[in-house]
Write a structure and sequence with these properties.
Helix content: 10-25%
Organism: Acanthoscelides obtectus
Number of strands: 6
Order of helices and strands: EEHHHEEEE
Main location: cytoplasm
Strand content: 15-25%
Strand order of the largest sheet: 1-2
Number of helices: 3
GO molecular function, one term: ATP binding
Pfam family, one: Kinesin
Mean pLDDT: 79
Number of domains: 3
Shape: globular
Keywords: ATP-binding, Coiled coil, Cytoplasm, Cytoskeleton, Motor protein, Nucleotide-binding
Structural class: alpha+beta
Length: 153
């Protein structure tokens, strides 16, 4: 999702995708391919959706599970200028997922006066195969290490 409108490429013909759960996007056959393609998504968000829409549909259920003791990962992936930074960071009128998740976590902790919590979060960027810690600007160019069958940055 992004602030500006990005129409599908003119060289291909795309049918409209609905905003329903388990949406389909169909690419019709054209001169570059004999067969059409169908892509199935859990959610499809157009340019009119806000970060709060994305948060409520996709991220909030992850945070709810996280607060019950499960691990969760929010992963923004896409081509340059596709809206990843806007979705994660947002702006003054449309807060990003980082702020919305933080608000939910701290509100949950404040509401649970009879429990103690230890919350550990990482906020990293992988760009051109380089790993950067976005919470600590002095911690850039991190190395991926393999520990037996697990990886850590």
């Amino acid at each position: 999702h992004k602030d500006q409108t990005n129409d599908p490429p003119r060289s291909s013909r795309w049918s409209r995708a609905s905003l329903e759960r388990k949406s389909k996007l169909h690419r019709e056959a054209d001169e570059s391919s004999r067969h059409g393609e169908v892509y199935i998504f859990d959610h499809v968000f157009n340019q009119e959706c806000t970060n709060s829409d994305v948060y409520g549909s996709v991220v909030k259920p992850l945070v709810d599970s996280f607060m019950e003791g499960f691990n969760a990962t929010i992963f923004a992936y896409g081509q340059t200028s596709s809206g990843k930074t806007h979705t994660i960071l947002g702006n003054k009128t449309d807060p990003g997922l980082f702020q919305l998740v933080s608000n939910q976590l701290f509100q949950h902790v404040a509401d649970q006066v009879d429990k103690r919590y230890l919350i550990r979060c990482s906020y990293i960027e992988i760009y051109n195969e380089k790993i950067n810690d976005l919470l600590d600007k002095s911690n850039q160019g991190l190395t991926m290490r393999r520990y037996q069958r697990k990886c850590a940055a």
